Amino acid sequence: QAHFVESGGGLVQPGGSLTLSCQVSGIFFDRYPMGWYRQISGKERELVAAITGNGTRTHEPFARGRFTITRDNGKATVYLQMTNLKFEDTAVYYCNAVCGTGLRPCFDTWGQGTQVTVSS
Description:
Distance between the termini: 40 Å
Number of helices: 0
Order of helices and strands: EEEEEEEEEEE
Structural class: mainly beta
Low-confidence stretches: none
Mean pLDDT: 96
Radius of gyration: 13 Å
Largest sheet: 7 strands, mixed
C-alpha cells in the first residue's frame, strides 16, 4: 500500500524559501509520476507540480518561476523547492503519485501533509 511522509514545512516570512520532502514507500516509485498537492484552508486540494519518472516536470501557473519539483529515485523521495513565498501559499502540502492526463492523485491514501505558513 502506498505510504507518503511529508516534511519540511514551517513558518516563513513573505519572500522566504522552504524545501519540502516526501518519502514514499509501498509502490514501485520510479514507475510513477509524482506530484505535490496543496490544500488551502476552506478550499479543495489542488495540484502544485508533477514530475515523471525520468524527470519531465510541469508546474501550475501560480508555481512557475518560484517552485521546482525534483525527485531522487534511489531514495524514493520527491522534493518541492519553494522560493519567493507569498501569503497565499499558506496551505498544507501533500504528495501522491500522479495518474492520467488530468494529473489526478493515484491513491486515495494520503500522508499527514506538512504545513507551510507564510506570515510576517
